[in-house]
Structure formats: C-alpha cells, structure tokens
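[step 3/7] fold_predict: job queued, chain A
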Amino acid sequence: MAIITISRGTMSGGESLAKCLSEKLSIPAVSPETLQETSDRLGISQSLLLQQLEKTKGLIHDSSTERGLYLTAIQLALAERAQKGPFVYYGYAGHLLMKGVPQVLRVRVIAPLNRRAERLAENQKISLEEAKKAIEKMDENRMKWSRFLHDVDWRDPFLYDLVINLDSLGIESACEMIICTLNQKEFVESPESRMIVEDFLLASRVKAELAGHDRTKGLELEVSSKQGEVTISSRIETGGIFRSGRHQIRNDLIEVAKQVPGVKKVLIGIEDIPVVLE
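[step 4/7] structure written:
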C-alpha cells in the first residue's frame, strides 16, 4: 500500500479527507504537528522559521541554517514514519520532501474560495468578507512557504498524481477514488521499493547528523544512499571562506557521516562555484 500525501488550502477539506482515508485504510493520519518531535530532537524551532518567512518579500534565493535544519527534520520524520509502513500525511509539501520514494500517491485538494470562506466564517464566527480576506492571506503565505522552502509553486498540478475538487465531490467519494488508485500496479509495494525506503531513511539520518553537527552545519548538501553506501554532494565557492579548507571539509563530512549506524562507505562530491566579484 502506498504512502499518501495531501496538499490543501485552508478549509479545502484536506484534513477531513485524510481522516476518512485513515479510518477506511486503518493507517495513521500524520500532520506537521505530530512531526514536531523530530524537530525538537534536532533543536529546531518551527515558530522561528515561520517568523522568518513572514518577513520575506518574494522568492528567497539565499541559504539559511534554519531553513536547512527544518527541511532536514521534517524529511527525517517522514522517512522514519515511512519505514513503519503506510500512512497519510496532510501538511506542507510532504510529497516534495519524499522525492524519489516509490509508491507515494501525491494528492492535491481544491475547493472554491466562497465555499472555503463559508466554512471559515462559520467556524470562527466572522463575516464572509473577513473570511475571504483571511483565506487569501493564508493562501499567499502558503505560496511563499513553498517558494521559500522548495522553489516551487505548490498549486502547480504537475506536482501531483491526483487533483480532486471537493466542490463537486464529497469526502466519501474522494476517499473511495483515492483507495481505487492505490490498488493500481504503480502503488503496489515490492522488495525493491522497501529497499529504496531504507536507503531514503539512512540518507535522511546522515543529512540530519551533518546539518546539526558543529563542523558541517550550514553547508548546502545533497545526500543519497544505496545499501549503506552514502554519497554526499556539496557546492562551495572557490573564493569563499572554505577555499583553504576544502580538504578539511571532505574529511569532516566523511567523519561525521560515518557516525551514523548503517553507513558502510562515504563518497564525497564537491563542486566549485566561481566567485563573481562586483
């Protein structure tokens, strides 16, 4: 059975759909709040990152330690959950953090603004106009969030396997549609897919260790794993502060990565970025 990720706007019905799937399939429904334990374990403040996001204007290109740590924490939490078996996740861009993991059914839930505003107005006892403005603001923040963390527009339908309009479909019908999709061959678990999940988990653990270690934190890293062989890639400015310590960085990456149980071999690939002088 596949892992299901549900991306939705405020009051679109995504949470209700996740709980319906959880009940019918007898699998856990996981929200960002339930993953906070992993962030806490790595010493990451989700609220601090949200405050940083609120201060941003448009697309952010520069890296930040907080951004990298938060992404790493959520990815590790999802990897640990995936090892335990199927689940449904309704939260920020889970499908993007699980890129490369097989049998992930990526669902986007949409609903008209008026319908969503009616639900929010009733829920919070506010006017319909106030509810519309609130939802538009939340949608804008969610778009900034996806741009900030992943450099994508979360509304892009090509990011999903299914886009479901809950204005024309009820929760029960949408739930049955997803269950039917799960029965297709593309989402049937195999020994090979389980191995990929194990590789994803090890890579996530290594990345979390590197992101939190004093000698390696702050580096932009890509980490992959195949049966215990871990590959770490990084891009470093040749004229930056790391110029004279390139060899030391390689040693630090290898040494820190080998501290993670299950790592048998570490391969390092460092790409130089020429510095453009103003």
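[step 5/7] annotate
Residues 186 and 246 are 43 Å apart (CA to CA).
The longest strand covers residues 229-237.
exit 0
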